[in-house]
Design a protein that fits this description.
42% of the residues lie in helices and 24% in strands.
Length: 215
């Protein structure tokens, strides 16, 4: 799991990076502008943003990311304790909020909750009788298991993580391939066709003129 950490407190940042790197891949920056660039270059699984940083604020950053259809789950960390900042954080698209000072175990539990809710664990229950091993690219049911190709696995995981909305063909192309390797939309349609063979048509819906949605 890849985490982008935006935190300008050097002491806290060092503590968080050391702690999180025991289990996750962490990229840390002090700058809102740098965080925006990194979010465009790398497909992160989780954002952890401080509200106040020297060149802006995490709330404005998240608003901008959400305007680009970036639905990456986000936890805000802040020294503010008033409800006004809490409200602004959630209105910007935040998924959770943790107030300084906090115990690292509290952060762990909030991350675990995000992982369960957004299917970020290695083993994901994508249907009542179907488990998805995202690390080994295996779909498991009570009676069988099927290996997926890397791209099939990436596509299924992306659709599942964004199951609350419709995902366009262009968005899948941008998130599953590098820019200089990006194929045509036919490659996405082929992936969807293959996944439906494994899952059944009822789990990946074609929303005419818009894209696909996981059910």
């Amino acid at each position: 799991m890849k985490i982008l950490l935006l935190e300008d407190d050097t002491v806290l940042a060092d503590i968080l990076v050391d702690f999180l790197q025991e289990e996750y891949t962490v990229t840390h920056t002090y700058s809102m502008k740098k965080a925006l660039v990194l979010s465009e270059e790398i497909n992160y699984d989780l954002y952890i943003f401080d509200i106040n940083v020297p060149d802006g604020d995490g709330i404005s950053l998240l608003k901008e990311l959400r305007s680009f259809n970036d639905e990456t789950p986000t936890i805000f960390i802040t020294a503010f304790h008033d409800t006004q900042h809490l409200k602004k954080a959630f209105e910007s698209g935040a998924n959770d909020f943790i107030k300084k000072p906090f115990d690292l175990e509290e952060l762990t539990q909030r991350i675990e909750n995000i992982k369960r809710h957004f299917g970020l664990s290695f083993l994901v229950q994508i249907a009542k009788d179907l488990e998805f091993d995202t690390q080994n690219h295996i779909l498991k049911s009570e009676n069988s298991s099927q290996h997926l190709s890397n791209k099939e696995s990436m596509c299924l995981h992306y659709l599942y993580k964004n199951r609350h909305r419709v995902v366009s063909v262009d968005e899948l192309l941008q998130n599953l391939w590098e820019y200089d390797e990006m194929p045509s939309g036919d490659a996405v349609r082929t992936l969807i066709k293959e996944l439906r063979k494994h899952l059944g048509k009822e789990h990946i819906l074609n929303i005419r003129g818009e894209g696909y949605r996981f059910e």
